[in-house]
């Protein structure tokens, strides 16, 4: 049956057969929940009752104009964002070094990528123990040097820095590997030509390598925006958003709004707002990035 | 040539069969509908109590005990971690996949008003001391399994070391804490501030104890500015602020959570911790020695001539969701559960205070806390009105406790802020 059709139809048949299941899965687990989410964001559903009412834009108005706690949470997200942005040049430099410029770079590459492979909750539990004020490693080290203990996770003014540190530990590795892959995909004759023309290391890096890995840097910047705005497992497991909401991020607050305060409608609206913020930020970031190049 | 085409056809048939099989398995999970009472029925239960689950599934199997009287019913019990239980039940509710019989936490009870089957006419409800006190929308939607009192558990050895007596007023309690702190060896009061909820005996219950009314929060819901100076809530929080300012909960109370709190108590690093009677079972399970454990009721009164209030809370409200396909069998189960010897053995083994009339509470351990005191118990309950305001303004007393522990905001500014938010939340209702 299959053999008797012409090549074009055969190709179409193969494509449809193979794409059928992934398409169904995406429709079922991504598109349908997304439509339902947007629909629920206009209601006042409490998550339990079988009925709910449509309230129009009330949820959105409340989130944008009448929720200081939401803006405080976004500030905490901002800290993750800035922390990662500051680290991008360092990651670029480390990737540059790992590109066969130091001895044992293969081993270092594996070590750099290891943190990303560990499950996020396990990382959070590990660092909770590290930061613990009762029997934590960091505080024991400080006491060894006769310094005062620091409330890494209990001091509201430094808890976000501690958590950003965990996020950097976890995700720097994958950024470094992405940059490294980009470096290694560069044609070597361009760099050789620049060496012949008398360019030093820094000039090579800034004028030849960087412009050619622009697409990868754009991807990393987008991952950064999305990751910083969506960060959930680290604050949720390590501090639960505490102490007293000091380390609460936007997604932790969304979950609490849905489950602790029985307001699914508003939580869905928060998820929609987050989506819009991520898209807006990415567009602005891309425009700024391309502007710099011109 | 023929071999190749045969192989191809065979592999196609195998792949097709596998795909069909996957689809078929996914579709075959429909629950069986009951037609007659002799048909085999499976009742699914879920619960969060670790001690309860161990007893029901291992020590004295509930499934076996029930099968003796109802041979056609099989009981399956599922344990869900306490932290995740409430969320899990909410998610299952939206998927219409709630278990047939499950307990609801008292704090969540008002949310389930439209979800559960009314149990007003059951014998189990009529024989329950507390079931009718916690009606939602006029219906009993859950029958409470146990009643809890709040206590302060203390390390007898440490009290002996410092020659301390059980405190009977708030100032005496503060003095006990200060004496132990001055000794510089033990943490006077363990509080697990990192997790937030362990401060509930103070930040959640003390306003009720100050007002002498377990439904005080419901009264607050009818007031415009319940956080004003002179009101029970403010007075209670003033006392609590004094406690936290005395720094008797360790050098970093926000740095350790519940797990570390109970580990430190069992290890003898802390002198006291406040928890409900449910904690005793946990203490025993984690290697605590009974002869070293003492218990007293938290004294929040100002002088010995003031009344001594203590909270009583009912918990584990067993109910049946409207979506249950075996409601008749589920109701029969509840009737059996609350009237049989099994219930008496169950709560007796877990040292829980029973809620069923006629079941004796023979625990000598907690009786010592009531000796020599004219204790007035107040039953804790939150109504729908209060819950609406609480959700609307995200009123979280345990979080305010964390703020007080951090000591960076003045009590007056916290209270003024609460008044403003409360007024707004009330006007939005």
From TrEMBL, chain B:
Classification via Pfam families: SBP_bac_1
Highest taxon in the source lineage: Bacteria
InterPro entries found in the cross-reference section: Bact_solute-bd_prot1 (IPR050490), SBP (IPR006059)
Keywords for the protein's UniProt record, in alphabetical order: Cell membrane, Lipoprotein, Membrane, Palmitate, Signal
Signal peptide bounds: 1-24
Residue ranges the record marks as coiled coil: none
Protein name as annotated: Multiple sugar-binding protein
Organism: Clostridium liquoris
């Amino acid at each position: 049956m299959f053999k008797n059709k012409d090549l074009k139809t055969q190709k179409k048949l193969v494509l449809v057969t193979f794409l059928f299941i992934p398409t169904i899965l995406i429709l079922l687990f991504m598109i349908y929940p997304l439509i339902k989410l947007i629909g629920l964001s206009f209601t006042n559903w409490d998550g339990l009752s079988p009925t709910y009412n449509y309230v129009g834009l009330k949820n959105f108005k409340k989130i944008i104009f009448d929720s200081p706690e939401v803006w405080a949470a976004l500030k905490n997200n901002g800290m993750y964002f800035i922390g990662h942005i500051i680290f991008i040049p360092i990651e670029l430099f480390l990737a540059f070094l790992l590109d066969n410029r130091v001895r044992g770079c293969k081993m270092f590459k594996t070590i750099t990528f290891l943190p990303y492979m560990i499950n996020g909750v396990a990382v959070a539990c590990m660092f909770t123990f590290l930061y613990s004020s009762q029997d934590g490693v960091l505080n024991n080290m400080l006491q060894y040097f006769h310094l005062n203990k620091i409330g890494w996770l209990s001091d509201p003014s430094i808890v976000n820095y501690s958590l950003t540190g965990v996020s950097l530990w976890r995700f720097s590795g994958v950024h470094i590997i992405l940059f490294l892959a980009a470096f290694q995909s560069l044609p070597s004759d361009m760099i050789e030509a620049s060496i012949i023309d008398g360019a030093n290391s820094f000039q090579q890096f800034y004028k030849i390598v960087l412009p050619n890995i622009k697409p990868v840097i754009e991807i990393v910047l987008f991952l950064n925006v999305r990751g910083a705005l969506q960060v959930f497992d680290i604050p949720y497991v390590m501090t639960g958003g505490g102490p007293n909401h000091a380390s609460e991020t936007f997604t932790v607050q969304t979950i609490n709004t849905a489950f602790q305060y029985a307001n699914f409608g508003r939580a869905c609206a928060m998820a929609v707002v987050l989506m819009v913020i991520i898209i807006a930020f990415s567009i602005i970031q891309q425009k700024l990035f391309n502007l710099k190049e011109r | 040539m023929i071999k190749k085409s045969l192989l191809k056809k065979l592999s196609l048939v195998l792949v097709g069969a596998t795909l069909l099989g996957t689809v078929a398995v996914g579709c075959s999970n429909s629950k069986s509908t009951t037609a007659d009472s002799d048909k085999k029925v499976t009742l699914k239960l879920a619960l969060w109590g670790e001690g309860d689950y161990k007893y029901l599934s291992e020590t004295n199997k509930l499934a076996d005990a029930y099968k003796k009287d109802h041979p056609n019913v099989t009981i399956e019990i599922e344990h869900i971690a306490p932290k995740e239980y409430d969320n899990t039940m909410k998610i299952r509710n939206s998927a219409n996949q709630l278990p047939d019989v499950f307990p609801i936490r008292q704090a969540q009870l008002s949310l389930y008003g439209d979800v559960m089957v009314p149990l007003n006419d059951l014998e189990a409800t009529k024989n329950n001391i507390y079931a009718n006190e916690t009606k939602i929308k006029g219906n009993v939607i859950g029958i409470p399994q146990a009643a809890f009192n709040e206590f302060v558990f203390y390390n007898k050895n440490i009290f002996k070391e410092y020659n301390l007596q059980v405190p009977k007023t708030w100032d005496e309690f503060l003095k006990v804490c200060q004496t132990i702190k001055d000794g510089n060896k033990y943490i006077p009061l363990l509080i697990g501030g990192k997790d937030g909820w362990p401060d509930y005996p103070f930040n959640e219950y003390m306003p009720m104890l100050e007002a002498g009314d377990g439904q005080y929060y419901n009264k607050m819901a009818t007031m415009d500015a319940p956080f004003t100076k002179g009101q029970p809530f403010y007075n209670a929080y003033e006392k609590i602020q004094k406690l936290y300012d005395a720094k008797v909960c360790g050098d970093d109370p926000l740095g350790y959570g519940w797990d570390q709190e109970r580990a430190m108590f069992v290890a003898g690093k802390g002198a006291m911790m406040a928890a409900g009677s449910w904690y005793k079972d946990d203490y025993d399970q984690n290697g605590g020695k009974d002869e070293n454990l003492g218990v007293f009721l938290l004294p929040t009164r100002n002088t010995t001539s003031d009344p001594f209030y203590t909270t009583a809370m009912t918990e584990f409200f067993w109910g049946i969701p409207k979506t249950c396909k075996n409601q008749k069998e589920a109701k029969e189960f509840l009737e059996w559960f609350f009237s049989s010897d099994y219930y008496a053995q169950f709560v007796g083994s877990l040292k829980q205070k029973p809620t069923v009339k006629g079941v004796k509470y023979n625990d000598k351990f907690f009786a010592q806390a009531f000796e020599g005191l004219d204790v007035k118990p107040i039953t804790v309950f939150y109504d729908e009105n209060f819950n609406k305001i609480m959700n609307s303004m995200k009123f979280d007393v345990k979080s305010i406790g964390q703020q007080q522990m951090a000591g960076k905001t003045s009590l007056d500014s916290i209270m003024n802020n609460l008044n403003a938010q409360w007024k707004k939340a009330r006007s939005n209702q």
